[in-house]
Known about the structure:
Layout: E1 12-16, H1 40-52, E2 57-61, H2 71-80, E3 84-89, H3 96-104, E4 107-113, H4 119-126, H5 131-144, E5 148-154, H6 163-172, E6 177-181, H7 188-191, H8 193-196, H9 200-216, E7 221-224, E8 251-254, E9 259-261, E10 271-272, H10 278-284, H11 286-292, H12 306-309, H13 314-321
Parallel strand pairs: 1-2, 1-8, 2-3, 3-4, 4-5, 5-6, 6-7
Antiparallel strand pairs: 8-9, 9-10
Helix pairs in contact: 3-5
Domain Radical SAM core: 7-221
Cofactor: [4Fe-4S] cluster
Protein name: Radical SAM domain protein
Amino acid sequence: xxxxxxxxxxxxxxxxxxxxxxxxxxxxxxxxxxxxxxxxxxxxxxxxxxxxxxxxxxxxxxxxxxxxxxxxxxxxxxxxxxxxxxxxxxxxxxxxxxxxxxxxxxxxxxxxxxxxxxxxxxxxxxxxxxxxxxxxxxxxxxxxxxxxxxxxxxxxxxxxxxxxxxxxxxxxxxxxxxxxxxxxxxxxxxxxxxxxxxxxxxxxxxxxxxxxxxxxxxxxxxxxxxxxxxxxxxxxxxxxxxxxxxxxxxxxxxxxxxxxxxxxxxxxxxxxxxxxxxxxxxxxxxxxxxxxxxxxxxxxxxxxxxxxxxxxxxxxxxxxxxxxxxxxxxxxxxxx
Length: 336
């Protein structure tokens, strides 16, 4: 097994502490995930196991993590033991008091999901009226509490031509980072892909404009997490660490019932944090080995960008073709 090229432990664990959610997002990947949640005592013991394995940070998600009643205790427990603690939230439940409580519980960064600068468009995409207004309010309260904020935007048909507006919006609301996430085809994202996903040519046009904006904008970090931009001669933020998808190389995902998967968009269980040792999974999982040592197929076999791209997003390739090694369906490079 070729594990020497990878870290001794994940840098980050993305941990779904609950799959309950107060939103009805049209692209949700976790709607069909198990609703079982680890009790607090078991969860604390599992956090200790994660720390012992050498993990440096944990990002809590879901579902909506604020629906987990013990979230503050979970965060404080993690932060007190040296983990960097962050969270992804829809922002609906964050008022001034909650923001101050999050700060006291050790949260150093909170990402708020916001998919359009237009309130009605965001509200429709997320399925909750008033969610746009609540997201903006959350950003204000979090900044007031001294927590670094970011905006997470899922790029799809509703917003791919709004780069300038989204960038201006993020700058106006004082966030540190604007994350442009590529559309995944997992869960409801698969069910609604024909309506929401972009064509390969539209993805190319989006990334050309987004990278230009990234280079020009000052005071705002614009993050693009899609390895297929390598074919444009551009790099993602993680290229200095790993090539291709970061799943199983820099991070792992833990579901609410403790199941471990390479990422939240890959529904392949490779262990369970309650019964298994994270280090053993990280070093020995056959699934992770295949993801870390992908083999080019189809047009990837002769593509000059393959060494940097490694076939693009592994989650998308698996969801739409059934094989990690197949070319990412979003890729715009034609067959030779």
